[in-house]
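Hi, here's the filled form for the chain we discussed.

Project: internal
Contact: R.S.
Residues: 362
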Amino acid sequence: MSDEEWERFLRESVTGVAGAPVEPSARAREVERRLRETSGQPEGWRTYSPARPRRRTGWYVTGLVAAVALLVVGLFPDRVVGWFAGGGGQDGAPLAAESEAPREAPGAEPDLRPTLAEPFRGSPAARWADGAAGITVPPAKATGWMDAAHVERALRQSRDFLVAAGLDSRVLRGKRPTKAIALLNPHQKDVQEYLRTALSSTAPTPETDPLLLFSRFRPAQARLVGDVVKTRGRLTYREGKRGAVEVTADVTFVYPVTPAGDGGRDTEVVRTIVRREVVMSWDDPAKVITEPGTTSLVSYRLDMTNGGCSAPTGYFVPPFGTADKQPADGAHHVDPYDRSKPIETRNGTTAGGDDCATATRS
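And the returned structure, exactly as it came back:
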């Protein structure tokens, strides 16, 4: 080898030649060994493999079932309600409290008869509250001669009067409404005269009928089914005469009853439906003679269904044995559950006879 070739060899050994093979490092040799030991083609770190498409058969089936269910509800709503009511035991969720006058009557219910086990079956009252819980009391604010605290007490005592007059178990069995009377102004002469006559007469007139204020059944004729009376209604108030706080109560009571002494499984159950409007005046004792904790009555009206259409007796008279009878043509029809309309002046208590209205449902 000449001196020139030797010098070029030494120079290329130091600087390297383009394209000349390079011996891999120890780390590169280790990685290559591991790749050979693994099966399959290694995936590059910048490569992308699309996910396998998911089958959505389950969602399609669910959507189809939902569509069919909506179609069935739309075509047969009453039948569907009957399915989910378990034969009429619970006709839907409980209604919210009545905070204002309703704009329309409750919707139709499945045509199911009440039973001893389910006395409110097939009735809008099945969704109403029990007892005093169904009477809505509004928030209190200063009105007339009373501050907010006194108005709150007047509202509470107004509801107490309704409970004592329409829900007390003793009164419902025909006993004297002592608790309710204790809340009435003893100095209001016309009301006190009405109470004396109504609760002592064996033949009350439409004007002296105790049912105008108190709910009573004759124990020998009818008895309540269970301990629950369904109610729906509300109290409202405003400033009345001479600065009094005037409270108006508009409440419907539903009483399920059965013939007295009949305890068979097929015993007939009738619902007596009573709507009362009572206006009470909580007077300023500086201007009106009254007693603390008592109210004066301004007015009281009654509308009832299945409580009797003959002359007043002082007790509700449920029409047992007439459930299958059809109403006469041309009869005056009313919906006892329609609270969107004012109380009618013609009803079974005060009118009686041929003027008694026929209920469209009970």
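Let me know if anything looks off before we file it.
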